[in-house]
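User: Structure with magnesium ion, tokens only please.
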Amino acid sequence: MKNRSKLQKIASGIWEYTLSIGIFIAFWFVYVRFADVPAYILPSPGVVWISFVDLFRTGMVWPHLWTTSYEVLFGFFIGSLLGMILGYIFIKIDFLKVALMPYLIFLQTAPKIALVPLFVIWFGIGIVSKIVLIISMVIFPVLSGMMLGLDSIPADVRNLLKVLKANRWQVFSQVEIKYSLPALFSSLKIGIVQAVIGAIVAEWMSGKQGLGYILTYASSTYKISMLLAGIVLTILLGIATYEMVNIFENKLLYWHESKRNQE
Amino acid sequence: MGQKENDVVIRDLDKIYGNLLKEDTVALKGINLSIKKGEFVSIIGPSGCGKSTLLKIIGGLEKLSAGTIEYSDPENRLGFVFQDSVLLPWKNVRENAEFPLVIQKKQTKENEEKLDALLDLAGLKEFSSALPRELSGGMKSRVSIVRALSYDAPLLLMDEPFGALDALTRDHLNIELLKIWSKTNKTIIFVTHSIEEAVFLSDRVIVMATRPGRIREIVPIDLTRPRDEDSRNDSKFGEYCRYLREIIG
Ligand SMILES: Nc1ncnc2c1ncn2[C@@H]1O[C@H](COP(=O)(O)OP(=O)(O)OP(=O)(O)O)[C@@H](O)[C@H]1O
Ligand SMILES: [Mg+2]
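Assistant:
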């Protein structure tokens, strides 16, 4: 019974997606056809689809897709880990929070594109400068989420731990990390989106590899259908990585109020 | 009673909450109180008179501003039932109740069996694997009580544990609590708003007054034990209730 309704839910979800994308593509098709839009401005969906398939058929896209995915996942992983550790330390040691927070806010508010040339000078045009940029974009939201999560622990839960004489590790592993998860996952979802943006921007501005590079290449050679195919692929990569975080969240937060109706 | 050893001795205790903007709150002023080993004491008084504060100070959860507290137990082991039940939302009923055993690494077969018996007693057996969000307020408070009883702390501090329950369940759990108390020889300090509950349970009722929070009177309750439903029909029971209602005003 439960399983069936779950399947139905997934099926109806897929159906809704297909329908809304289908309507969008239909509009696109009709518009291009009847408004006589020249193909170098906006090609029809069919042409973009062929380009998209070609990216894979010729095999040219694989190394780029691999590079970008690798940068996104690796940068996201390191950035989140650092964000979580810093968030924990800031909550525990007030002095460090006061001392280091201004730099992080500076890093957060500085336009990241402006930092790319600097990172290229410091870390070269290879993968390192890209990962550094991604880390710088992921770290702040995750750090804020971790701090918010740790702050959300009710005073009497801390009192309970004190009465039971729980040690620091028990407090962290049994209670703090669990209470942090809801806020942490909200911030990880922001982080993963930031990571994809960071990777594309960095590749756009420097380097010879990655989906961002395909976009610059297509745009500078006026291959508009390839450009659109590249954009679609970037969006798909964004959705796929976001869904990965989502799946983890559903696994780990089964107990949370927000998941009450999803069982 | 008189020859029994003291479990907690409080001398000249003050508690002041500092406040940057307003005047400081004098939550407690000049509290002197000795609680005997194995005694059941209730604290009653108007809202805001410092009952929770006093309990938290005894539990070592708040610093005191002046005075001293001495405990007979050198390890200072205690159980605390908080005013809100504070269950961990990702743990089911049994895991929540078992939490102290996990933290203190005392998951022996004996303790686990004792825990299951307690869950049964509290009417929670069928709900062992339910998550807190699936429980009623009354069930949550029963879980938090079982959690405080699951490990052997000689001192049990309870802050309005039955506040969220209907009168019938409350009366029933009062009797169960007395049974557990008489079996385990725990010292219990019990905060409540209900005069009847205080009289029914206690050896002594401590009546507090407000602004500043202080002890107005300590009323010994001389009703025979063990107590059951019939004790409420005792004429002395009614008299105690009337007397307490008068002084609380
Ligand atoms: N953390 C705090 N900071 C400042 N003032 C506090 C704090 N906790 C309690 N107080 C003040 O101390 C006084 C006593 O509060 P307490 O919670 O002990 O009352 P209570 O008798 O338990 O009330 P109730 O019956 O409503 O639970 C109140 O005036 C309250 O405002
Ligand atoms: Mg209170």
